[in-house]
Amino acid sequence: MDKNRCGWCKGDKLYEAYHDHEWGVPVKDDDLLFEFLVLETFQAGLSWITILKRRENFRVAFDHFDYQKIAIYPESKILALLQDEGIIRNKLKVRATVTNAQAYLNIQKEFGSFSNYIWAFVNNEPIINEVIHYKEAPANTPISDAISKDLKKRGFKFVGSTIIYAFMQATGMVNDHQLDCFRYHQV
Description:
Layout (H helix, E strand, L loop, with lengths): L12 H9 L8 H14 L4 H6 L1 H7 L5 H4 L4 H7 L9 H21 L2 H6 L7 E2 L13 H12 L7 H10 L3 E2 L12
Helix pairs in contact: 2-7, 2-10, 9-10
């Protein structure tokens, strides 16, 4: 018997596995938070499945999302990434990833961890929504607006409110699983 899932992931095994095991699970690990931030940056203007299918390519291309390495990428590495057909070869997004890694390190210095910084926006507890149909979930909220504004002030790129809200959903800062989804009460 099939499990009842959120409508956005039904019918694609990769999407379903991501939904069943990752989406909406609270993430407090700085390494994984940075990975999601990078993936959401590249997702801007594209479908999430496009990014999900290339996730492992991104992992290899960006040194397993090691923000300490990424923060000091030389121009030669950036140019090599722009030739890598396994990832999205968007010059602005690739350069934004390097800039964001640098800003990420600054936040860690200031707050002790990126997790401390980002989770403070939701008082260290996931926001539990009551989504009946996935298309009813918001694209952004006043909290994602505030996070976006603060990240931009700190030098981050490609962190608009919609991208940040998707990041919040992915990392469990908000639970937007549909009420009838088997994961709603599990995350």
